[in-house]
Design brief:
111 residues, alpha+beta, 5-stranded antiparallel β-sheet, 43% helix
Length: 111
């Protein structure tokens, strides 16, 4: 997906936690940062912990739900340092699947 195809960037909130989102004009849908969703569900602000959790979960999901992992797109989103980095993103359906794969009460409430 070319960066020119994404023209809207948004910050969404879940329980007062930022979830970065970007609109893909070509696919006509929003994509959400996987790390931000994980941080919101787990109520975790530590980027490194969210990244490690996603790394572990992605490995597990590749065996159990490979379609979810293959549904991730790398889009450039602005990070805390102000720079734009390629970030794993999922559409709304993917976010729902991700939440169902996280085994805790907060994930159920997220849905």
């Amino acid at each position: 997906m070319k960066e020119s195809e994404t023209n809207k960037i948004s910050i969404r909130f879940y329980n007062d936690r930022e979830v970065r989102a970007v609109w893909d004009a070509g696919k006509q849908q929003w994509f959400f940062s996987v790390l931000d969703v994980i941080g919101a569900i787990n109520q975790q602000d530590d980027y490194a912990k969210n990244r490690n959790y996603w790394k572990y979960l992605k490995t597990k999901l590749k065996r159990e739900q490979p379609e979810l992992v293959s549904a991730t797109n790398q889009l450039k989103l602005r990070a805390a340092d102000g720079k734009r980095y390629a970030t794993d993103t999922l559409n709304a359906d993917g976010v729902a699947q991700l939440a169902r794969s996280i085994n805790n009460v907060r994930a159920i409430q997220f849905l």
